[in-house]
Amino acid sequence: MEHLTQWKHADPEQVRLSADILRTLEEAGHTACWVGGCVRDELIGRPVNDMDIATSAHPEEVDALFPRTIPTGIEHGTVTVVMEKIPFEVTTFRTESDYKDFRRPEEVTFVRSLQEDLRRRDFTMNAIARGLDGKYVDPYDGRGDLERGLIRCVGEARERFREDALRMLRGVRFASVFGYELEPKTWEALLELRGNMRHIAAERIRAELEKMLGGPKPAEGLLLLARSGLLAEAKIRLTPQALESARPEQLDVLPPKPAELRWAALLQGIGVSGDEAENLLKSWTFSGGFAKSAAALLRIDARMNAAGFSTEVAAEEKNLRLAFVRCVLDFGRTAAENWRVYHSMMDKADGKSTACFQLTADWMAAIPAESPRELALGGKDIVERLDRKPGPWLGDLIRRLLEATAMGSIANEREALLENLVRIEEVPGAQKEEKSE
Ligand SMILES: Nc1ccn([C@@H]2O[C@H](COP(=O)(O)OP(=O)(O)OP(=O)(O)O)[C@@H](O)[C@H]2O)c(=O)n1
After folding, report:
1. Does residue 361 share a domain with residue 376?
2. Closest Cα to atom 23, ligand 1: which residue?
3. What does pTM read for this prediction?
4. Which residues form the CCA-adding enzyme C-terminal domain (predicted)?
5. Beta pairing partners, 308
6. Is residue 392 a contact partner of residue 431, using CB atoms and an 8 Å limit?
7. 70 in a structural domain
8. Which atom of ligand 1 is closest in space to residue 120's alpha carbon?
9. What's the CA-to-centroid distance between 37 and ligand 1, angstroms?
10. Domain holding 401: CATH number?
11. What domain range is 212 assigned to?
12. How far apart are CA 151 and CA 118, in angstroms?
């Protein structure tokens, strides 16, 4: 009897298609089951993502059974089977090594039984398999640990962490995201072997930290990182001292998306400036776009602080509005939007009023043009009207027009802009300072 309806937290299409794969494998005489994260997430009622499959069939046998396959990591035993455009990873029962940083295919050993495969997985909660009949294979009482809220290594923790040091960070990430505890022996092994984290590629560390910071309570994870010193010598280096000064609890106040908010808070907490942030994030293997946008948030924050921005005085002070307008013009609306959320949430964390959230929204909404293209007057018109040769003065003037329209002192209309051209141009040094970083 198949028990597909028991998958309550997975996409029914994925259940149906992955069940088809299991059935095909079994009909060909192999053993096959769902395993890992999908089984775990279903058990604790979290949304199930990838439905990974483990099988006794060798990669070439898997490949032969299905019309559409991709040899994703055939030497590691993984074949991606594509069913109605949805990819599923089908992995031959194997032991360790392919989780390692320096992948050495010759170390992968295919094993005959599911039991042997589960024995080399990281945590008990990740070493549960589930068959088409709805029955579990759970030799390490992963379900019991899920109920107890415990992250426990399968077997000897030191061995598991020696096989792949990233598992230590995975443990911290799971503890943080699920709100679980690390079982004492697992924690001890982590403390003993934390130095091995320095061999792990930044990209893998970054991916774990992203999941942690995207979770419901990242602060707990950061505290665990501080207490363990896990990343003290890692390629993404976060020392206990830096983490302790970072006021991690503030991260929980910020929404998980956009991700820039929490990353900016973390960087600011550990004393990284907006100017340093972009390169640092890139060196941590973040995309250029993300690094830029998180750094922009911090740059805006630094500027607004330097201008003396605080909710109490913001409504009265015109120069604070001008400082904000300049940030919008220099860094764009999205970055300014991120900063608004960031600043008001930080105020909230400090028990202050969040009234500036609305005020800055009003300021933002009143900006009619963010770039020269949106201005109702082109460079050519300006040159003609003033009868001057184009030069750097033109860019300066356009910038001042953008600022004046954003502040509401000139309407973004051709006539109004033309009328004010001479006046704006003649004010010496008007609104010239702090134009860009
Ligand atoms: N370093 C690792 C990585 C993975 N695994 C095993 O491979 C499975 C799938 O790993 P992965 O897809 O990376 O993570 P998930 O556990 O599925 O968790 P999540 O989807 O939350 O990342 C894990 O459940 C675990 O059994 C492991 O033992 N050691």
Report:
1. no
2. 36
3. 0.91
4. 260-420
5. none
6. no
7. yes
8. 28
9. 6
10. 1.10.246.80
11. 149-245
12. 16
